[in-house]
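If you are new to this repository, start here. Below is one unmodified record pulled from the training split, so you can see the exact layout before writing a loader.
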Amino acid sequence: MFKLVITLTILPIFGLYFVGDLSFLAKTANIMGYVGLVLMLWNVILGAKPLSWLISKDYVRLNKIHRALRKYGIFFVLSHPLIQMYSYLENFYWIITPLIGNELELHISFGRLALLIYLIIWITSMLLKSRIRYRPWLYIHYLTYPWFSGFSPSS
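And here is the target side for that same chain:
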């Protein structure tokens, strides 16, 4: 049932293929970003106990879904800038070099900053969790909240 709910929250995003005059590749990159954003939003909801308990009291099941969504979310979130880079015919340095020359580059730089925060969260969650105490890990994990509030789809 819960997989159906998540699928139904993602499905409308694919309507973006039929809107606008961007190339198919650019639309694919945008959709990958939006799908990744929705999956990671579900990940935040499932990872926050006060919110997840509104969905189900079965914390073990919710944690399994949380972990599975993380894998798909990572794929979509990391695919987004790579496909954008390819659609703009840029090299890898374009992804990590902040530019603010015009409004488009400013918005892209917000995405670059969001990617940096996301990578910090991901690396600490996956690689350092066994090496650091729970509290510091949890505080690093809390970076997801400003990540979602500060880097909306409009940025």
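Two things worth knowing about this chain: The CA atoms of residues 104 and 155 lie 9 Å apart. The chain has two domains: 1-97, 102-155.
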